[in-house]
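Q: I'm building a small set of examples for a reading group on sequence design. Run inverse folding on the following structure and report the sequence directly after it, with nothing in between.
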């Protein structure tokens, strides 16, 4: 039997336990979102959905896919609707999100996206374009839109980067200002627009066939854009808005508005994302498919716990980091998520510099252990060979794939030279870490252990040897 597609027209057939939009959808969106990946749809879109459901119609989203038309076409065929399964030890629920009111693809409809930035109803632009999206082209797209808005005499906008980059608001503002050719536009942006920094947190695996099948079974309709996520979410945003009254509105939906974003950002990037990158590489090389498959191994759990406690936490200002750690270990173990290690290992060359070096540098400065991060870095070199320890090949999806493969190729014959070549690259590690001899020595040490005993063997040795 072919089921009807998830659409407004099939509403009457949705299963009754599904949480559905209860407000009138449509009209002019107040938010333009760039980067329509799974994360946005299961995080901010649901915050805006909450506000829309509470009767504030200013938060409808014009969702813009940056390059891939397939997802946008799929969502268009579903009137912008998609289901989200929220599942963890606290329970399981399904929600259909109605916040996407309009859809475009930037690569296909650039003029439409630029025009949208000038519409009087627009109040916010949000972005989840991933680490590699912060290109001059992105700056130009925003600068072109803001120029049109300025020319039309429009009000300023809040432009919020929500990617896993340190100081993401400042990074974005600098990119936009660099793309503005003239002083008056730069002045207008500086005076009227706000670029708050944000820390966003929710584990949202990429779309998958099992979730689509479950959506079909539970909802009774065919949803090709269904997503799974966890109950936990945090959005901590800097108190810097084009319209200051937005602070209270966001707070009413559970968003934390603060001047302390770096405190949360550092903890999240180094504890969650830093552990994620380490486990992703370990899992890929040892043939474990998901983060939960890694963390359920006692030696990996101990390794990650110690990495956080010994090498990350001493450099954090987030005073409740222990609670965050406990929550994280539970979140990693969530059996519903099936969060693929290869998804997280994607673009490691851009992610790791945000996630590991601040802890390593902090530890070097205070003379503390760097062995957990050193072992993780050694696993990265092993990962770059492109096959697991049992010989199964995997794809390396990374803009630096060729470089990584070249650095990794000689590691059996000339291990020390390979480690040194990997660690010498400032584009992978930032400016300060390359050349730190103790760091090079420890990565060389753990790399040798990996060659001799495999990744699991090396982790067990570390746990035994470093009390
Ligand atoms: C992950 C993040 O793919 C990755 O690099 O570390 O997407 C992570 O799941 C989120 O930042 C959680 O908030």
């Amino acid at each position: 039997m072919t089921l009807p597609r998830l659409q407004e027209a099939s509403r009457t057939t949705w299963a009754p336990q599904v949480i559905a939009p209860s407000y009138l959808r449509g009209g002019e969106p107040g938010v333009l979102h760039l980067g329509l990946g799974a994360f946005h749809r299961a995080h901010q879109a649901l915050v805006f959905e909450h506000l829309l459901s509470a009767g504030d119609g200013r938060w409808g989203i014009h969702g813009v896919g940056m390059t891939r038309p397939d997802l946008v076409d799929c969502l268009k065929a579903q009137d912008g609707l998609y289901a989200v399964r929220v599942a963890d030890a606290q329970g399981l629920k399904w929600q259909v999100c109605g916040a996407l009111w309009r859809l475009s693809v930037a690569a296909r409809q650039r003029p439409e996206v630029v025009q949208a930035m000038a519409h009087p109803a627009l109040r916010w632009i949000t972005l989840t374009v991933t680490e590699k999206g912060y290109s001059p082209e992105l700056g130009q797209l925003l600068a072109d839109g803001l120029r049109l808005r300025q020319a039309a005499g429009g009000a300023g906008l809040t432009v919020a980067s929500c990617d896993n980059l340190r100081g993401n608001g400042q990074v974005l503002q600098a990119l936009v200002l660099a793309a503005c050719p003239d002083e008056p536009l730069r002045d207008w942006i500086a005076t009227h627009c706000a670029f708050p920094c944000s820390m966003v947190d929710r584990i949202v695996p990429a779309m998958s066939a099992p979730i689509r099948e479950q959506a079909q079974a539970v909802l009774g309709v065919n949803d090709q854009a269904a997503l799974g996520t966890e109950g936990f979410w945090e959005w901590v945003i800097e108190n810097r808005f084009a319209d200051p009254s937005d602070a209270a509105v966001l707070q009413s939906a559970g968003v934390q508005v603060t001047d302390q974003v770096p405190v949360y950002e550092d903890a999240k990037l180094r504890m969650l994302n830093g552990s994620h990158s380490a486990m992703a590489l370990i899992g890929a090389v040892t043939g474990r498919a998901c983060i939960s498959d890694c963390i359920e191994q006692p030696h990996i759990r101990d390794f990650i716990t110690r990495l956080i406690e010994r090498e990350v936490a001493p450099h954090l200002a987030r005073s409740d980091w222990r609670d965050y750690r406990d929550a994280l270990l539970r979140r990693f173990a969530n059996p519903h998520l099936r969060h693929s290690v290869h998804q997280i290992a994607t673009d490691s060359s851009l992610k790791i510099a945000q996630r590991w070096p601040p802890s390593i540098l902090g530890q070097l400065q205070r003379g503390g252990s760097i062995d957990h991060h050193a072992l993780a870095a050694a696993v990265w070199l092993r990962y770059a060979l492109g096959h697991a320890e049992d010989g199964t090949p995997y794809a390396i999806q990374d803009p630096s794939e060729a470089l990584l493969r070249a650095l990794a190729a000689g590691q059996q014959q000339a291990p020390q030279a390979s480690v040194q070549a990997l660690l010498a690259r400032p584009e992978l590690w930032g400016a300060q870490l390359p050349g730190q001899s103790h760091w090079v020595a420890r990565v060389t040490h753990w790399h040798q252990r990996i060659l001799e005993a495999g990744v699991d063997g090396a982790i067990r040795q570390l746990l035994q040897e470093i009390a």
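The pocket of D-mannonic acid is lined by residues 164, 201-203, 272-273, 276, 343-344, 351 (CB under 6 Å).
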